[in-house]
Amino acid sequence: MVKTEIIEEYQISRSTLAILPMEYGSKLYSQIYDLEVDQFSPLKPLELIKKSCRSFCSSYEGRKEGSRQLIGFTHKIPITIDSTNMLYFFPTASPLSKRCAWVSHVHVLHYEKIDSATTLVYFRNKKTVIIPTSVYTFENQMLRTALLRTNLMQKKQSGGQERVSLSRYRLVSKASENSPEYGGVKED
Q: In 90-159, which ranges are continuous DSSP H helix?
């Protein structure tokens, strides 16, 4: 059975699944979904993200700029809080928005549309969470975070030389039936 606790201090870790905004009166708090114990914090989700970046010897702004350099996006940028511990989180809206949730990429197993503005997320530990964002936005953020993870891993393996960019890949709309294996005409 999952417990819920109210805490003053929280450190994002490998067991953090997601941090959702929760309005209580006129204040914005964080609802923290964890593998073991769900918790509430009086800090806003972005404040928890920033605090966790600092605890891993960086700043949120530095992590955001690093992600921007690696993947080339400028809005709703996923960040690496700590790559050693697989702490890759993405925002579901502008991080300054009151409705922005932060989700751990490594824990997401599956997601599906509830309605045009809500997504149901299934985590690897069988826990589910309703996220206030469209399934399109959620999927886009999952892909951006996967790109960030891949680029960071390649950069580490190559000593900082390699980078995958979406601009390197051209989407091809030709059907596979046009290939010679299917009796079609080969186009160069």
A: 135-157
The burial of 48, by beta-carbon neighbours within 10 Å (0-12 exposed, 13-18 middle, 19 or more buried), is given as: buried
Cβ-contact 119, 130 below 8 angstroms: yes
Parallel/antiparallel/unpaired status of strands 128-131 and 118-123? antiparallel
Of 61, 7, 57, residue with least CA distance to 34 = 7
User: In this structure, what is the dihedral angle of CA atoms 114, 134, 92, 103, given to the nearest 10 degrees?
Assistant: 30
Q: How confident is the model at residue 4 (pLDDT cuts 50, 70, 90)?
A: low
- Exposed / middle / buried, residue 73 (Cβ in 10 Å: 0-12, 13-18, 19+): middle
- Tokens representing 103 are 């989700």
Name which of 90, 74, 70 is nearest 155 in CA terms: 70
Is there a contact between 81 and 53 (Cβ–Cβ < 8 Å)? yes
Tell me the per-residue pLDDT of 135-156, one tens digit each, with 9 for 90 and over: 999 999 999 999 999 999 898 8
